Amino acid sequence: MSGMIPFNPLAGTPFGSALELCLVLIVFCWVAAIVLRENVWLDRVWSLCPPIYCLLVAARDGFDSARINLMTLLVLLWAVRLTFNFARKGGFRRGGGDYRWVVVEERLGPLRFQIANILFIVPSQLLLIWLFTSPIHQAWLSPHAPLGWLDAVAAVVFVAFLAGQTVGDQQMWTFQQDKKRKAEAGEEIEQPFIDTGLFRYSRHPSYLCEIGMWFAFYLFAVSASGDWLHWTGLGFIFLSGQMVGSVRLTETISIEKYPTYAQYQASTPMLVPLPRRQGHGSP
Question: Sign (positive/negative) of CA torsion 27, 17, 132, 166?
């Protein structure tokens, strides 16, 4: 695939092929959103792109690099968790997907939303996915750098955040299923949003874990290159910015729906767990 676009800065490399695949997916998501009238195709490919990009890099040299194989394995585990969680919430069914897209479209209007989707949302999001996966390219550029202590730290941190995100997903799923059951049975719903488990310490533990995992992924590139700062670190930096933006959008919706959500905001950190302030939450 490499060489398909003349301006590819990584032409001739497997991650350059990943960039070209990324551009193909941008066009696909545009067309699918317009023809099928669903704005969720970006969400549907989100968890599939990073493992494919990593496999392209790992396969180029016959899976000979221990570091690249480890990075690919971790990303595959990440993808399995995210795909499963997205699928059980109905994301791959007709009309499924992230409810926030509906809110954004209502706020912008159908025409302005489609213009924003074509010019900004789809290309920026898919290029972001490619970018936060880019540390594997840096590892590929240093094929003979041995695994070291920083790789071990990166792997442990990645797995710890992956475990935290898995726990948070299950806690949210259990809460939402119980809430749905009560609503269908006509029972009173005393607490309309989750504030227990991991959500007792962070309003958005899954977002925190997501940022943490991709920071850990960047550490593999640092270990391979010996440099703490290089362009592949832009991925988790921009991802962090997007996560904060997504949280703010989510919370504007939550505070409109739940009058007591402001109390939860005042007592519980948005992302990083800090000593809990008084005034809200289960004992």
Answer: positive
